[in-house]
Amino acid sequence: MYINIVFFGYMAAVFLGLAGIAAMGLAAVSRPFHRTRQYTCVLSFVTCAFLYSLLYFLFYYRENVLQVYELGLGWRLLDYLVGCGIMLLWLLLIGSLDEELVAARRFLAAAVVIVGLRSVFSCIMTGVFMDGYYQIHQSGAAGPLSYVEMLFIVLTILLILYGCWKAARDVPLLMHRIYIFVVSAALILLDLSQAAVNLKLYFGKFGISAWDLHTFDPTGPLLAVIGLATLIFIFRTDFTPIYIAGPPAQKGADAQQETMPQISPLDLAAEKHRLTRREREIMELVYDGLSNPDIAQQLCISRNTVKQHIHNIFEKMDVSTRIELVHLINSEKEMTKYSN
């Protein structure tokens, strides 16, 4: 029963991670599409979460099906690197959702330095001091190494908590804030649970395997929560209107209708809601899925100016989120099609 529950948790995490990668791939091949920094951060994070889930699924399969308990150095290094990588990519993703954190480069620099040093330390620890069962046999080494590892874990958690605190203040979209809080909580619990298991492995408390003792293992469920939350976030965010676009135009339509000049739904929306030329440009970039920093860079204006224009656009069009804006433009598109 225990084996089945844990196995199902890892399978669910792998499936959700793969679904997230597929969803991001669909966004990349859709039209119109611009590879934004936020898109890159989400794609990197969901890919790393999938690798994390797949790696532990393979570990669990080796031990409980193949009865192979010893892990080579390459597998152990990959274990630590993926574990540190998901933390770093999450901190970078928080930064991409919170424009104030992007401006505060010290946060991103601290994330790279702390998680980078943690990765180097973990690789040295497993390569020099550990055997194939994660045990540290050198006399007196397990204690100091454990203290240093816990220090890095605490610093990583503090960075995540700081990112959550900033997101609660700065991130305007409720959906983004909820996503940050849910995934941050899951990653903190995951890091702490892994640390608790590792400490006992270092001192040989679990023997050759913690799973053999039916130790509570929340890794699979927590990774599944991360995968599900990310998948929902992908479908609800605005990388591209692919997920909420109207149905494609039917082939074989009347030839005269096809040759008639088509009015852009963006132009129609801009004219209907009396947008200025600059607001029309920004509305199109928002519709295409660009973030505020990307819009500012493309139009060579400040981020505060972009924020003010988007605020004016939302007021004129009577919407409160980017998703509502895309829905409204798509509805204008449908009305134009049927009117023709």
From TrEMBL:
<keyword id="KW-0812">Transmembrane</keyword>
<keyword id="KW-0238">DNA-binding</keyword>
<feature type="transmembrane region" description="Helical">
    <location>
        <begin position="145"/>
        <end position="165"/>
    </location>
</feature>
<feature type="transmembrane region" description="Helical">
    <location>
        <begin position="177"/>
        <end position="199"/>
    </location>
</feature>
<feature type="domain" description="HTH luxR-type">
    <location>
        <begin position="268"/>
        <end position="333"/>
    </location>
</feature>
<keyword id="KW-0805">Transcription regulation</keyword>
<feature type="transmembrane region" description="Helical">
    <location>
        <begin position="41"/>
        <end position="61"/>
    </location>
</feature>
<feature type="transmembrane region" description="Helical">
    <location>
        <begin position="107"/>
        <end position="130"/>
    </location>
</feature>
<protein>
    <submittedName>
        <fullName>Helix-turn-helix transcriptional regulator</fullName>
    </submittedName>
</protein>
<dbReference type="GO" id="GO:0003677">
    <property type="term" value="F:DNA binding"/>
</dbReference>
<keyword id="KW-0804">Transcription</keyword>
<dbReference type="InterPro" id="IPR036388">
    <property type="entry name" value="WH-like_DNA-bd_sf"/>
</dbReference>
<dbReference type="InterPro" id="IPR000792">
    <property type="entry name" value="Tscrpt_reg_LuxR_C"/>
</dbReference>
<dbReference type="InterPro" id="IPR016032">
    <property type="entry name" value="Sig_transdc_resp-reg_C-effctor"/>
</dbReference>
<feature type="transmembrane region" description="Helical">
    <location>
        <begin position="6"/>
        <end position="29"/>
    </location>
</feature>
<keyword id="KW-0472">Membrane</keyword>
<keyword id="KW-1133">Transmembrane helix</keyword>
<dbReference type="GO" id="GO:0006355">
    <property type="term" value="P:regulation of DNA-templated transcription"/>
</dbReference>
<dbReference type="Pfam" id="PF00196">
    <property type="entry name" value="GerE"/>
</dbReference>
<feature type="transmembrane region" description="Helical">
    <location>
        <begin position="219"/>
        <end position="235"/>
    </location>
</feature>
<feature type="transmembrane region" description="Helical">
    <location>
        <begin position="73"/>
        <end position="95"/>
    </location>
</feature>
